[in-house]
Structure formats: structure tokens, C-alpha cells
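R.M. (postdoc): so does anyone remember the format we settled on? I'll just put the C-alpha cells first.
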């Protein structure tokens, strides 16, 4: 069971540090004691009914981490809600989850009223913070610790039980729930433990919200190793560069954009992060320039490019970046690499038949990390991504269509080519936006780059492309000429826009919709 990784470590070294948050260090024993009380409180609520899911609305507070463990220990699945999400999205997730209970920390409790006003049926809401006065919080039923005392009873579930439900955008843009079982999560954690040597006094950093699935890696791989999870207050690049050094962080995990901002702020100086032993990036392409800068800043760290989807539990492939690989300027973006233990990969054509060696096709994923489907049967178009197919020489019979195009190489494993759904047609020609981004990045040496189709005609067809880069020293005309030399005229960006910083979405990735809105505002302003 997923939470067993924490409680097993607590049993063997209860006095060791498990969590640093809000300027305080908590031991395994302290967190265990508080989590058991939450578990007992939930058991008291659920005494007369079978409650399988519990919402968790909290910032990255000690109460929220205790809530995750308490919910799991009570035999329920936790459904994390992002404090950064709009109220309408949060309300939609609450309604879709079907969860009758919600645990909330004090900071989020004051933000509930707008969300609850959008719901037809409200869950029972309990405050997690111990000893807090909730009398002024009208939306909260009670403080969990104030419930009638109930003895702690260990819940014995099965690995087929759902551990957590994360919501991601579907084909319509509406959030859709992905239930991940203990078996799915256990397969991932066990794979990571096989691939990483246990580090003494490991200190993992967590930058993402609990509603983003890398948080599961940060928490449970850390606790499985008996390490301490460090939670900074912000993702500000200046603050976190100092945070790594001050707390001697050993394990880093983020999207490349976070490191890109550090590079932009000139924080990736040689030897800056000498304490780091393992660095992982995923969620976006990792450019060569950023990999080089990170390797210089963290000379004692192994560097991994990870790839995965929520539907296949966090990550499915990894590529260990070597100095020899990044020394070659032709390698502009890091490959996806090789499958994690027990994961199977296939590259297929439109008829789901295997493509020839080195040919591009859609990437399929299978294995014990693969979710059983989406929470709601209403997402039939999305559920069709899960397909039954037998391939000679492969164990799996059930596969997930990622929508990503890739090709398999003998030397570097899987190489990402782009998204099926980000192909655009310009003047009748197909253009892969990621391919254009790779070229712009190579020509500009920008830390970060994003290309969007613009302008659009009255029916939404793009007439050209605009590239955004974060590098004030870019010679725009030189980059445009270089792009025209490497790309067909219809695929070369018409404009290069230099910006100070990219807008980010709630998951810390580049917000391309915000960039498109910026283009719209600029057009109307002109």
C-alpha cells in the first residue's frame, strides 16, 4: 500500500526528520502520530457508511501532508484540490469526485465560500489543523480532532483499492478524474527504488502542488528512502537557489521551466548546487542549453529526463544525461530514453500497427502503472485512449494512446517528436510546433522557448507562427534568418518576441493560452 512506505520508515526510525515545512522540522514519529489521529477521526465519521474518497483542500502545509497519510491510512482515496485553481474548476472537480468528505487546512478554509456557492450538494467539511478555533468558519462542520474519540484501527485494504484521484484536462478542456490504485503507485515507487541507490540523509525538495502527480514521487520515494521532504514557501528562482544551498538538498524534481527561470536569473553558476545527488526533470522538453547549465551548477548530481502521464502514474521512461551526450550540439533536446521497470512501450501507426525501426509514430504505454480508465464514463472520447491489443513478444494486452509522436533509437531509446494534437496546418502544410521550438532554441540559445500559431483567421486557422523566448541578448533578425535557413518558409516564425518571464499555469508549465491572449491584446491595442 502506498502509505506503507511512510509508516514502515516511521517504525524503523521514528526520530529521524520526515518533513520540513513552514520553517519547522517534523520527525517521522510526529507525523505518524498526527496521521493516525486523522485516520481515527475519519473512521469515526465513516463508522456507519462506506466512504471511499475524501477531498483534500490545502496548501503545502503540515496539515495537508498529514491529511494525505491519514486519508490513505483510513482506507480512503485522497482527491487533492489545487488552491491555485479557479473556483469554477474546483467546484467541478468536487462534483465529479463524488466524495462526501473534505479535509481542509486553515489557510484554504477561508477560501471555501466561493467554491461552495457553485455546488448543488456540499460535502461534509472538517478542519485539519489541530487545536484551531473554527467558530468563524461557517463552511466548516468541525475540527477533525474535536470529533468524539475513536480508537485507531488499522485498515487492511488491497492493492486494487484506489489510492488517489487526480484531475487533468480532457479532450474538451474540462477536468477529468484519473483514479490511481495502490498497485499502480507501488509499481512506480518500486521501480524508482530499483533505479536509485539509497542516499544517506536524503533531502528531497517539493515544488509542485499536491494536485500535480510529481508530488507523489516527491513524498513517497523520499519517505521510502527514509529521507526528509523539504517544502519551500515559493517557486521563486532566487529563493529556491538559496534554499538548495542552505538546506543542502540532495534530490531535485521539477519541470524544466523552473530551472529555466533560475538560469535566466543567473543562479546556475558553476558548482552552485554541490549538495545535489539526483536531479529529475519532466513535463516539458529539456533543452540542451538548460541541461548543460544544470550539470555545471550541480556537478555531483546525476541528471535524468523523465517522461510520463497521469494516466500511467507519474513517469514511464527516463534518460540519464551524460556529459558526452550534451557535448554534441546536434542534441538540442534530451530524449525520453528507456522504459522504467515493467513498463512496455510501442510506437505505432494510425491503425495501431508497429512502425518500422527508427520510424515516427504514436507512442503507446502499458504495464502495471497504467490506470484502469477515467472516473466518469461520460469521457468516452478519452476512455477510447485505452485500447486492447496483443503484440507479438509483448506481455501487455492493454495500452494507453499517449497522443505523443516518437521514434525508437538503439542509442538513445525513445526520442520525442511532438504532439498529435499540436500539429497545425499553415497554408495546407503540416507543422509540428515542437520541431519549430527546437530550431528556435538552437538558433537563439534561449533558456526557454514557446511557439504558438498566430495570427488566426475568422475560423481559427493559423496564418503563421510567433516564437517567444526568454533571453534579452537575442539578436532577433539573426535568429529569424537562421530559422529560415533550417525550416520551410511556412514553418519559420514570422516574429520572435523576447519576454522577461513566461506565464505559468498551476502546474508550473508554460501557459500557452496566456501567450495567445497576449497576442490578442497587442493586436487590439495596435
Amino acid at each position: 500500500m502506498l502509505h506503507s512506505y511512510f509508516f514502515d520508515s516511521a517504525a524503523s526510525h521514528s526520530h529521524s526528520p520526515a518533513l520540513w515545512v513552514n520553517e519547522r522540522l517534523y520527525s517521522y514519529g510526529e507525523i505518524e502520530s498526527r496521521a493516525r489521529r486523522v485516520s481515527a477521526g475519519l473512521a469515526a465519521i465513516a463508522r456507519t457508511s462506506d466512504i471511499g474518497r475524501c477531498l483534500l483542500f490545502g496548501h503545502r502545509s503540515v496539515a495537508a501532508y498529514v491529511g494525505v497519510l491519514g486519508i490513505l491510512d483510513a482506507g480512503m482515496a485522497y482527491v487533492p484540490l489545487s488552491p491555485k485553481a479557479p473556483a469554477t474548476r474546483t467546484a467541478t472537480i468536487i462534483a465529479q469526485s463524488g466524495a462526501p468528505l473534505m479535509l481542509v487546512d486553515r489557510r484554504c478554509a477561508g477560501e471555501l465560500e466561493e467554491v461552495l456557492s457553485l455546488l448543488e450538494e456540499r460535502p461534509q467539511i472538517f478542519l485539519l489543523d489541530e487545536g484551531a478555533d473554527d467558530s468563524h468558519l461557517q463552511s466548516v462542520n468541525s475540527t477533525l480532532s474535536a470529533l468524539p474519540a475513536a480508537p485507531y484501527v488499522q485498515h487492511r485494504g488491497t492493492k486494487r483499492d484506489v489510492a488517489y484521484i487526480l484531475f487533468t484536462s480532457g479532450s474538451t478542456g474540462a477536468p477529468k478524474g484519473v483514479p490511481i490504485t495502490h498497485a499502480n503507485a507501488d509499481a512506480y515507487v518500486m521501480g524508482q527504488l530499483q533505479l536509485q541507490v539509497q542516499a544517506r540523509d536524503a533531502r528531497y525538495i517539493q515544488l509542485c502542488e499536491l494536485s500535480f502527480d510529481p508530488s507523489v514521487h516527491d513524498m513517497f520515494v523520499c519517505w521510502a528512502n527514509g529521507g526528509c521532504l523539504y517544502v519551500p514557501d515559493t517557486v521563486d528562482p532566487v529563493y529556491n537557489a538559496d534554499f538548495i544551498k542552505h538546506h543542502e538538498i540532495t534530490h531535485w524534481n521539477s519541470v524544466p521551466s523552473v530551472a529555466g527561470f533560475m538560469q535566466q536569473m543567473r543562479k546556475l553558476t558553476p558548482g552552485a548546487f554541490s549538495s545535489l545527488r539526483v536531479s529529475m526533470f519532466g513535463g516539458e522538453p529539456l533543452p540542451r542549453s538548460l541541461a548543460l547549465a544544470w550539470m555545471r551548477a550541480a556537478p555531483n548530481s546525476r541528471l535524468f529526463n523523465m517522461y510520463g502521464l497521469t494516466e500511467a502514474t507519474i513517469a514511464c521512461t527516463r534518460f540519464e544525461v551524460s556529459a558526452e551526450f550534451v557535448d554534441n550540439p546536434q542534441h538540442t533536446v534530451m530524449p525520453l530514453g528507456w522504459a522504467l521497470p515493467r513498463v512496455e512501450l510501442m510506437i505505432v501507426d494510425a491503425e495501431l500497427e508497429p512502425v518500422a525501426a527508427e520510424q515516427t509514430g504514436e507512442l503507446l504505454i502499458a504495464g502495471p502503472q497504467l490506470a484502469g480508465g477515467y472516473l466518469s464514463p461520460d469521457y468516452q472520447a478519452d476512455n477510447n485512449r485505452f485500447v486492447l491489443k496483443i503484440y507479438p513478444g509483448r506481455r501487455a494486452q492493454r495500452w494507453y494512446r499517449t497522443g505523443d509522436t516518437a521514434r525508437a533509437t538503439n542509442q538513445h531509446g525513445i526520442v520525442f517528436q511532438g504532439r498529435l494534437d499540436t500539429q497545425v496546418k499553415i497554408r495546407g502544410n503540416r507543422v509540428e510546433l515542437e520541431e519549430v521550438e527546437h530550431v528556435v532554441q538552437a538558433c537563439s540559445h534561449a533558456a526557454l522557448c514557446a511557439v504558438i500559431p498566430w495570427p488566426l483567421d475568422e475560423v481559427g486557422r493559423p496564418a503563421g507562427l510567433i516564437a517567444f523566448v526568454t533571453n534579452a541578448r537575442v539578436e532577433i533578425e539573426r535568429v529569424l534568418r537562421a530559422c529560415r535557413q533550417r525550416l520551410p518558409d511556412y514553418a519559420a516564425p514570422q516574429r520572435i518576441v523576447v519576454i522577461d518571464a513566461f506565464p505559468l499555469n498551476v502546474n508550473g508549465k508554460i501557459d500557452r493560452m496566456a501567450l495567445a491572449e497576449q497576442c490578442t491584446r497587442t493586436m487590439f491595442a495596435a
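R.M.: ...and that's the designed sequence above, right after the C-alpha cells. Also worth knowing: The chain has three domains: 4-157, 184-339, 427-525. The chain has a mean pLDDT of 87.
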